[in-house]
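So, can you check this record?

>
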Amino acid sequence: MESLEIKDLKAIVSGIAAIMVEKKDELIRLDGAMGDGDLGLTMEKAFTAAKEEAEKLEEPDAGKLLMKLGMTIARTAPSTMGTLVATGFMSGGKAVTGCAALGMKETAAFFEAFVAGIMQRGKSKPGDKTLIDVLHPAAQSLSAAAAAGAGMKDAFRGCRAAAAEGLARTREMVAQHGRVAYYQEQSMGKEDPGAVAACYILQGFCDYVDSRA
């Protein structure tokens, strides 16, 4: 596949929603260890609403579609993580407004803006043991693939690997943000729940692209 069309983006959001339903209990357990334990509920609620909104929308602009889905997430799941994910979709969508479909260049631009928006909103950076430690290397991988002229399938395979490596690195980091930051050194040796959720968001994209001919 050479680009992500409107129907593809809607299918991806539907896939993410299914993943979040499946992984809800795992995210609750991870978040409950040092947080308030609502992450699984938040992600399920956010992406179920986004899926339902995507099914109703007749928006021909890919960027505007993604922005509207971000707004839906913000409205439905106004928690910290919900707000950050919503910001990512709105920032990413704004970067590709005017596109009927996302080729590799536009897909990379979407994810670069997705990450930048979250970093600005959450005042976070790589190494803080947050979802950024998954999203930042994933976005960089996609940008490098786009610059090298890689196909979408190969690009997202690289994205999946970069995200997994980023998640593994969070185990050795000390949390700097959120409720888990209260535990400081005790957070070492554990994956960040938000980073795990970010992996599942990326999984929705990667699984869909990998399944296409």
